[in-house]
Amino acid sequence: MQQLPKSVTFRMPADASPLGFRQQPARTLLEVDGLTRRFVAGESAAVDRVSFVLGEGELMALLGPSGCGKTTTLRMIGGLEEPDSGRILLRGRDITRLPTEKRGIGIVFQDYALFPHLDVLQNVSFGLRHLPRAAARARAEEMLALVGLEGLAQRRPHELSGGQQQRVALARTLAVSPLLVLLDEPFSNLDAAMRVETRQEVRRLLKQAGSSGILVTHDQEEALAMADRIAVMEKGRVLQIGTPDEIYRNPATRFVAAFLGRSNIMPGVAEGMAADTPLGRLPLSRAANGTVSLAVRPEQIMIEPDAQGDAAVVGREFRGHDQLYWVQQGDRCFLVISGLGQGAAEPIDIGARVRLRICDCVTPVD
Amino acid sequence: MTASDLFAGRRMPLPRVIFTALGLMVGGLMLLPLWYLLLRAFQADFDTVARLLWRWRTAELLLNTAALTAGVLAVCTMIALPLAWLISRTDLPGRRLINVLAVLPLAVPGYVMAYALIGLAGNYGFLNQILGVTLPRPQGLWGATLALSLYCFPYLYLNLRAAFAGLDQSLEESARALGCSPREVFQRVTLPHLMPALMAGWLVVGLYVIGDFGAVALMRYEAFSYVIYQQYAAAFDRLYAAWLALILIAIALSVVWWESRLREGVRYDRIGSGSGTGSRRLRLGLAGRLAGWLFSAAVVLASLGLPVAVLTFWMTRSAIGPVLPALLDSFGQSLSVAVPAAVLAAGMALPVAVLAVRYPSPLSTLINRLAFVGYAVPALAFALAFVFFSLQGPRWLYQSHVLLVTVYGLAFLALALGPIRSALYQIRPSMEDAARALGHGPAATFWRVTLPNIRPGVVAGMVLVFVIAMKELPIAFLLAPTGFRPLAITMFSRTSEGMLVDAAPYAAAIIAFSALFVGVVLRHDRKGGD
Fold it and tell me: What is residue A365's DSSP assignment?
């Protein structure tokens, strides 16, 4: 009988499809296949065999910390950077070596890149060079109306607020009806309040125009809120692709678990679809065997005051809609989020004895 | 292009190929004539050269040039250091006005200053006619030192003023708190911090003095440039001229090298994150103010009052009417060279600047260094190299307008490069990427996005080259086509023949143009400085 390896954990083979690759969109727009880019010979690649598929009308986020290769991936798709190897197919056509201006891909830059020597209307009509002058003007005005800036056509870019500049950049890109819109950290130059407001606006505009989009961001909240699907990247690799819900609930690796939201990582001994953990025997979201690390979301843990409990509250933070606790159990500290309505209605004091329970699946991450 | 690009078989984008080719052409053009200078110098056999160079005369020339350089640097420092301190560190009333007046002497080129000094003395001179005092005609080492110092000190002043402004005063205060006397503070803290600025200023002034021809020639001082010209034009000893030019270039390059060596590893910027204190000004008492005013007045009177007074004096000696046609003709001749030279310099600076800003690589660094060759090599030696090039290469170029314009373009390329490069640095690359993503090719992007946004820099570069070409003397002197009599040459030859009255209107025109130059520099200085 073949002996089971001591630990079967989720480890992605280099060129096998990571979790989420099963979901093929109905109609493929863009296919990225094994894209690789190495800036310094001999060092690790900035983008390493990145593959994914984007459907028509889909908005995907490339999410990862700075330096993970997400912007380089975007620039290669846009033709601003040449890949060392790999292919990019747009509607089945190989565009890997095509210059930017022949790709029909729109790009919204982090700094908006508006032309300071042109006014708003001239900026928006800049890409409409094949249209007659009057038609280009009409189209540009239509786009300005779409983003709600009709009155500002004669202004210069520097006379606009950050949010307005961003809408001009979007209008300029959408004016040429690109097959695909690339957005490179488009909200990072806006303040926090503007950001929340603008991202739904941008999503609405893209969907309204029927455009597909790829959004590069390091802000998990932004990716979760805007994207139809998220590709999480680290060190040039795509770790996981899936809907926001899937990735949040079922992170493929410890990195993904920690990067999207907060996670408690605890050891356990897995056996098929269950594992023995410091919090008792728990069901797993996917099969594993042997010693594993398990990711538990803070809101999956229930906290109950119990004088005989084996854990103690060591810190807490009131956050308005819920309560955050740091709970020490043995040599391990857990982060617990407790909604105000359920469970402990009364806030638990620091130092109080408690008991922790989990009544949900936990995820083996490595 | 980096090695990894080569190994990856990466294609260079077409614009980069074009700009690199243009940059290499500019760099090649810079070096080509110097190659011909070397060729000419090594045409003779070793014995001839040794006999030519191993004599007391060569040593004398070296000593003369060294003495002149040292003298000018000393006088400039004695003027500029106290002046910069007064303006940036004391509450001397009227310091704003003095600040402007201290930069204005840049509008009086060395040979015009020499003219003023010569016109001051002598039997028919300003002093004798107005005050009845006859001074001997200033000449030799003292005359040249004075003329060049009064023109050059503003370069040093501008550097020192910026250094005083950048000096964190809390350093000086810490030294005081650690028990140093004010004199010790100046020697142990202030002066070391001023050293980089002092050296940068000395470099500019030193290179100018080594390369100067006009003032030295008018003062009949046997420094390198003057003798090279004599050998070439009067004695027709081209071999000796070539060797002297090579020595002169070697001196200039070694000065540049030593300056960069001395500056290496010197770090005087603020360390740590504490905020620097704004500068507090020393409050001068009555005696201090009087002394400050007296010093400033002496400097301004000598550097500005003197040439203006002497020029006014000689201008009133004769009516302007009769000389006006000749003056206008001469002005037109200067224009006919300065305008195309400005356009050419900016045109050559553009690809060099694009390479530096958009495609940094060892090759583009090299091309950018080469762009400064024309500026660092003394003008007369540079011009002489082009004479040899045109005599041995394309003969039709010899004494042609085309050659003169080309040499101006190369010599002043570095001046145009500065503003164009900083304008390019201000354009975010994403703007060009955005134009590409909107369907415009590389050429259309350059034409419709890049060029409109760097236009102010290009114009500034052209204006700088234009006004400096209007007053240029040594290159024009050596390469002038027959019958070419621009402002500078006319003024120079009349002065050297003692015809001070006839030279006056030309000198005035040159000063007017140079004032324009100073205006442009000051505008940029204000933008960069304050």
Answer: -
